[in-house]
Every structure is written in structure tokens, then in C-alpha cells.
Design a protein that fits this description.
394 residues; 17 helices; three-stranded antiparallel sheet; Rossmann fold; alpha/beta
Length: 394
Amino acid sequence: MKMSQTLTPKTYLRSFLLFCCLLTILYTPFNWLDARYGFLGTYGLAFNPSQVAIIQYFALLVVLFNLSFPSSARMPVPYKAVLAFSLSLSILFSAEYVGSKFEIRQDSSGKIAKSDELLGWVGIPGSQRENWIDGRRVKIQLNSKGLRGPEPTLRAEFMFLGNSVTFAQHVAEKETFVSLLGGINAAFDGYNTMRERDFFLRDLSGYRPRNLVLIVTAGDVMTEAENLANIHETLSSGMMIQKTQNFLDRWLNYLRYSSSIYALLSRSPVLNQSRKDNRYLELVRKPIPAETWRQWTKAILDIKKGAPDSRLYIVLSPPRMAVRLSRQNILSCNLNNELSRFCREKQIPFLDLLPVLAGHDADLIFHDFTHYTADGHKLVADAIARFFKKIDSK
């Protein structure tokens, strides 16, 4: 018996619906494999939350088109498409309205950064924002100098330079290791060692802390050209200085945080931040080009030279994956070894946090691939306090 099938627009739509559903379902095993083996990002097979949100929206459109208007209904296809589109917008507007009333779908609110010609961005003095982190609100308050925490004093005991690990938007100010140690938090999100140098020399040169602590992470090591490219890329993305959001931007944001599929994935300890975990692990393990090392370490020496009244310390903060693997005794970190040797040559006191954190469960002390939880901050504060005590006893 010969069978034939006519390909109608409805057939194509149903096929597209199936394709969207399959992509959404496969998002889970794709990211699980990526978490384990770290190869999907190389071949472009993994989807980011925005792509998943768009796929789910098209799936919603096709579902409405097919289910709300059966083939028996005497209505032209263009009318059906317009009605389906209108219904989908009504659903999304309703979701936005509910989200704005109950504030359950926004990850953050408030602007704390402004553009800066030299640094790319700096903190806005007196600004504040609220982050939605693991089911609780975390308030970020900047003082009159655009720094997180209380007003700084000119001759403080400790000042900490760093990036988002030190700025610590994931925990309350009183829970950060800087606050626990009674120091000045002179860090900011998105900075690296070169921008920390420029920020310190330009805006903080009038401060003379007795101890200046530079917190280093794997993402800090780069050339001056890479630093400028990083500023441009970050500003273009709107990550630090948020662009004005239209309805589509707001909808994508709400859908990411309200979707049951994305919520399931984003809260999974295995799937969350898997590609960044592997990327940061690679950064601490791979050899560092000689020119990159020369330019990066020069930035460190510039900080030391610019603070003649302060004693400089360097603390290396490891990524989460390095802590996981160090517990299994299978990790060799080139960055840790090279930085330790550099500090010995330049007589800069150096603390590597990896051996300190290796005895702890990485998923309890890290919020994500590199940022600490409140428990992690307490461990880091205790380790740095012991480090200072050991230095002072010599």
C-alpha cells in the first residue's frame, strides 16, 4: 500500500514545536556532559539561558497556534497567527505584572556603577542595589567614595584590592572576609590587577593603609591589550553599566528566572556555571606566556611602588574546580607555583588559599565557579588572619 503525506504549514509548525521541545529537553544532558568533560562549549553545542528562553517562547507560540485553533475552525491561517501572537504577549505581560508585584523574578535592582574613561566603570558614591541570591535579598551599599562598606580612614590597618571575589555581591557586607578582618574594601566587580593598580594610584593614593592586600584570581592574569579588550567587551555587553531595558529585555529576564526548566537547571550544583568552572581551572593550570607574565607582574610592582608607606601582601584565591580536584590530589597549578616564586624573589608576603580550602567541600564554600558563600568568606578571613599573625611574629 502506497502512503503519501502532504506537507502543510501546520505540519511544519508541529515539527518546529517538536524541535523546540527536544532542544529544551536536551539542554539538561548537554550541560551535564559539559560539566563532566567540558567539551560542548568548544563545539557550540550548549545553550545559554537567553537561548533557552527564546526557544521556550517559540514553543509557547506554536502550542497556542495548534491547540487554541483546531484545524476544523474556519479561520484563515494569518488570523490564527495574529491571535496566537496576541495571546502569547498577554501571557508574558501578565507574567511581568505578577513578577513586578511579588518581586520573585528579578535577580537585581539598582545601579551602582557609572562609566569611567580610564577604568571602564567605577562605583557610584552613595548608591545601593539589592541582589536576589539563593532565595534572599543581599543589599549592596556604597559609601561616599564609591566603595563597599563603611567610610574609609586615611590610615587604616588593612585595605584590600580585588575584583568581584573581594567585592562579594553574593553575601551581605558584614559577611565578607574584608569586613570580618576590619579592612577597607577597595575592590569592584569586573576589575583585574591592572585596573586595580590604576584605581589605587588615581583614586586611593591619598590613603596610607599599614597593610595593602592584593587579592588575585585566575582571571586577573592578562596583558595590557587584553585588559583594554576586556573593558570594551564588558561595556558592550551591558553587564556592568546596564542599558535601558525594553519590554523584550525585561521579558527575557523574567522568563529566565521564572521558567521551571531554567530554575531547575540554574539551581543544580552540577550544571550551574560548568563552563566557567572548566575555564577557570584551565587558567590556573596552563603555562603563562612570558610577555603576559611580564606585563601582569609589572602591574603588581606598580602597586607596590605606589604605596611606599604600606606593606604589600598577595593572596591567591583559587577557583572552585581547583579546590574540588585538590581534594583528590590530582591537581598541579602553574599559576600558584609561578606566583609563589615571584613573591619570594620580590620579598612580597604570599598566601595561597588553595591548601587552606582543600580540606573543605567546595560546593559549600563557593557560590559559583569563583565566588564564596558566607561560610567560604569566614574560612578565608580566618586563613588571612592566621597569615598576618604568622608574619607579625617573625
